[in-house]
Write a structure and sequence with these properties.
Blueprint lengths: L12 E3 L2 E4 L3 H12 L4 E5 L3 H4 L7 E3 H9 L4 H6 L1 E3 L2 E5 L2 E5 L1 H5 L3 E3 L2 H15 L3 E4 L2 E6 L7 E5 L6 E5 L2 E4 L6 H4 L6 E17 L7 E4 L6 E5 L5 E7 L10 H11 L12 E16 L2 E2 L2 E3 L5 E2 L7 H22 L3 H4 L1 H24 L6 H14 L3 H12 L6
Parallel strand pairs: 1-12, 2-3, 2-13, 3-9, 6-15, 13-20
Antiparallel strand pairs: 4-8, 5-8, 6-7, 10-11, 11-12, 14-17, 14-18, 15-16, 16-17, 18-21, 19-20
Amino acid sequence: MTSPSPHPGSPAATRFPVVVVGAGPAGLTVGNILRAAGVDCLVLETESRAFIEQRPRAGVIEEWAVRGLEQRGLAAGLSARAERHSECEFRFDGHGHRFAYAELTGRHHWVYPQPLLVTDLVREYADVRGGEIRFGVRDVRLHDLDSDRPAVSYTDPDSGERQLVHCAFVAGCDGARGASRAALPGRTRISRHDYGIGWLALLAEAPPSADRVLFGMHADGFAGHMPRSPEMTRYYLQCPPGDDPDAWSEERVWDELQRRLGAADRPPLREGRLLEKRVLDMHNYVVEPMVSGRLFLAGDAAHLVAPIAAKGMNLALNDAFLLGDALVAHLTTGDSSGLDGYSDACLRRVWDYQEFSQWLSEIYHGTSCGDPYRAGTTLARLRRLFTSPAAAAAFAEQYLGTAGAY
């Protein structure tokens, strides 16, 4: 819950129009939009700069999100180094089925690992645009959010002293366990859906085995292949929720990947050393509204989409574009319409992506659920993608994030 600010006589009190809590894609994009418009802001991050530039996260960026970054001068690194994907492949019934979504829509995906995007964004914000940022802060607290004088306090990692920052607005971009979520009032609605499954997330020092994403629907569980670079590939293996990553030896991992992604008409996977193993319990949540007083949530602080549909970073960028532009309009011209409509505008895309994630989960996991009826209907849905142009077009629109009016 929000708390009253410390005594105004605090020796370390300062003021910024906006305090951004969290230096992920959402927070750094908001900060960059503000700095480009000449609006001062302070970004607070509990981790070090080195940590956020290496933290493993998503890598798929939709075309509309890339355009948004380009329009704001934030896509130079992406344009130079990202890989463009125009198709994916479903593997079921022992065969590979290529799905060329660019041929259907004229649109594509970009693959650019989140650590690279964060590195670009923090460099642009701090080193190029001169934005203020504090790394390694501790015990962040939000105060007086329902007043016109909110504040944020934190402990300085070097001096150990409490610092107090007055502001007009707080952008809460610090995830589900951060200070922003902790400051929400009890009446805030948080909707949650648990899939009851886990994914073993793997990063392999191995060249991609195909120039596209592969989805393996197998009776023993889903498997996924996601190219990240010419030398690195991310893989996923369905497993029980809460499973122990150490129970998965490299031999076991590669045996399962080869089997679940195997296809009679495709070569075996290229294997390599595993650099990362962690279990993700598949769940989604949505916070409504995404605003509480002068606090505006963005990214994982407001919603989570399990990596089933690779939508999380895209939703974070959408929030950041809308919030950054709305803050600039209010602070420079007094136009508050963007801030007034922020939550509703974000949630339209959020709920659309939530629904697609739930639908896609049935496609991925229906064949391994142990229910022959669900397995049969799942395979019927899959086959329809390759026999019905209407079904293929509808899937491509949702997969690319182009369906609906946002």
